[in-house]
Every structure is written in C-alpha cells, then in structure tokens.
Amino acid sequence: MAFAVGVSAVENATASGRSICLNGRRPRHCSRGQSERGKPSLVVLNCDPRAEGHDEEKTDRGEGKKSGFQKAVGIALSFLKSVGIAVTKFFTKGPVLFFSGLVSGLLLTGAILLVPDGAAVGESVREKVALFDIIFHDIASNYVEPVDEEKLFETGMQAMLSSLDPYTQFENNLQAREMNVKANGKYGGVGLGLAQDLREPDRLVVMSAFEGYAFDEGVRPGDYIERVNDISVRGRNIEEVTNMLRGPPGTSVNLEVSRQGASSGITFKLDRRFVSIRDVPVATIVDANEGIGYIKLQSFARDAASELRRAIAKVSNETKLTGLVLDLRGNPGGLLTSAVEVAETLVPKDSLIVSTKGREVSDSETYTSSRQPALPDNVKLAVLVNGQTASAAEIVAGAVQDLDVGLVIGTKTFGKGLIQNIHSLPYRTALRYTVGRYYTPSGRCIQALNYSSDNGTLVAKEKLDADRLVRCFMGPRGGNAAFAI
User: Fold this and answer.
1) Which domain range does residue 78 map to?
2) For the PDZ domain, which residue ranges apply (predicted)?
C-alpha cells in the first residue's frame, strides 16, 4: 500500500471537510464528507490488488560439532518433517542415508536414488532434496579450493527461497537471535540503534542513542562506529557489529566513534545492561496553545500498545488535547498482535482492523477492535508515513484511513503486507516464510507486487516538517511543504 500527498491537498481537504482519493477510487468503507468522529479522512491509494506471526521457538541444538554436510542433511530432514514426512530415525555412514518411518528406502550411492511410492511429499521433491545433498557434498569435498561449507549451504538455501519473495529467508544463528530480540523488545546491550550509511556503505552510523544507556555516556546520533574492543568494524554489517556490542549484562565494551568536527576518534567504555526497546521514544506537546500533541511510534514489539496508551494519557494530562500527530515514519513494523492492539487505541470498538488471507483456512482471519479507544472522539488525528513505513505500521495507517478516523499524510509507504511464520530449526537457525497477506478494512492488499522497485528511496528525498503538517491539518495557517510523489 502506498500513500503520497502534498500539503495543498491536505489544506483543501481540511477546508472542505471531504475525503480525497488520488487514484480516483474510494475504499468501500470510506464515506464522503465528515466521518462519524467529525474528522476529514484523506484517502490516498496506490495499492496492488494481490508480516508477522511467530511460532514458539523449539530449537534442537544437537550434540557436538556437525559438518556442513550433516547440517545440510539436518535442515533437509527438518523440511521433510514440516511437510508431513515422519522421520523417526536418522544416521549417516559415508554416502548412505537411512530414514525410517514413512520414508524407508532412500539410498544414495553416487547418482543412484531409490525412493518409496505413496509418501506425503511428491517424488520430484524428494529427488531434488537428495540431489542437493549430493551436489553439496561433492563441492565441499572436491572443489579446487577449500570452501566455507556454512556459507555454501546458506547461499544455496537463500537462492532457493529468493525465488518466492524477498521476505522468505533462511536465518543463520545470529539472524535468528536478532529476530527473537525484535519480537520481544528486550536484550542485553548498550542502547544504540545503528544503520548503514547510504553515502559510505562500508560504514555504520548511530541512528539513535537511548537515554539511560549509551546517550548518558556521550554517544550521539550521527557518530560513526569505527572500532569495537579495538577491532575495526569498517566493512562489517549491522548484525556483526550488533553482536559485538551485545553481551551479558554487567560486562562492558569499548566503543570508538568518529564525529564531525572532532580531530580524532572518541572512545567510550559502555556498560552492558538489560535494554528494553522503546516503542514510543517521544511523547510531547508541540503547540500548548492549540493543544496539539506529538507521539513517535518507532516499532511494534510486544508492549507497543501499552506504551502508546500511556503516551496518550501523558500528553492529555499536559494540555487540553485537541489534535494528535502519530508519527509512523521509519517504522518497520513488528508483531501482528501489536498492530491490532495499537489500532484499538485509535478506532471505535467493534471496528474491523485488518483481515488475512492465506493458502490454509487457518491463515485466513479477521481482527476487530475489542475495546474502547484511548483517543477521545473530539481529538483530531494525523498519521505521518514515509517510504520506510512498513508492515504492522501500514496496517495501522490503513485502518485509520479506511475507517475515517484521521488523516494519513506523507509519501509512498513501503508496501510489506505479508503474514510470516518463523520456524525454529536445528543449530540455532530459523526459517522465515510467508503464509498469507494482510488486507485493510476496505479490502485493499498492503503488499506491493513489484519487488524490484526501490520503494525506500523516497525517504532520502522527503522533507516533512511535523509542525507545519499539523498546522495545515488544523487550519489554513501553515505554509507549503515539499513531498516526493
């Protein structure tokens, strides 16, 4: 799903109290004129008619160090189990593999393959899994130069999954742990958010430094990470550096950064502590006279809805609230349950928030609001979005838009509306795969179809000013703001 508007359109919509559909279509649930809460709804559609559940982690770590070939076979076995083949025994000796259960006659000797009839998985699938084993083992053993078996295996898995969609992925142990951290919102670390610098891709820059953690030690957004414990991090990816910074609470790590204007690097000794990721880092009043509040929601971890409710209560206590800006720019999404709970704070009770459709009946569900909203009916709502607003954040923006409870303002959103399961696999790895898609209350699919387009480039072009947007939303006093369409 995508949103792309100019402030002039916001001003016209606000002045006339009507909905705007830039693509000439109105969502089926959108009414003309004022909504039941008295708020004009700006509807901007650029959707293709075409994510996040988490399985409970059940990790089989195995015993002892396994070879790359054994890892490959272990993953293949896990795949066979997941699609219905019972595997009760497994052992390897040389080139011979033996499975008992439904698969009782698989024999690999060179290029010879004997398979039973009537198994749950088609014969061609079993042949290809076995062929992968042969190729992997042959390359690992006989290639002209020694190969990194783990890298070879991961490359093969990723190549297979990339033919489906960009978000179905095999996650190695570091990536699997990172997924778990994002879902739970808690970890042992130093309180830093990092990003790859677009101008210098081999460098990492500090995007956020949490108060009470690294910020209190002097680290600031915009600092470049140079060394961790005297090890250069130039050319390393975010996962590697994040893993270097994290560790058991009570331990410390040395961090060297470079800062614009500083003649040399700056070194900090940071204590690792139990860090809780803040879904709402900012909740404040931007205009006390007009009673306008501003809340930044940066992620959808498990406590996102409760943090948002507390933030709404906080700004409501500081002034007589007449308008609220909910900033979802740069929000990559998170848990589906959190998206539904966040939407419940904004939409009327019993409203349809999102529906899901998938291959299986169990993957097709509807989610409605089961409680009263935290935002009073007489408070106007504006939601800010951009090219990095994705997934769960798009679910919330779509519900606000389709149900006419506020304005959605900004640039084209990312377009990630996939329901995904995370299947824990042996050796602390995981498989993230798509099982369905999200649909807004009016039936629009959030997921973009053109995976090759770079939706994220808009974030570098946009120039959104929250205060001016609020003023344009509240009345015709504000100036114009530049938007990338």
Assistant:
1) 68-165
2) 178-246
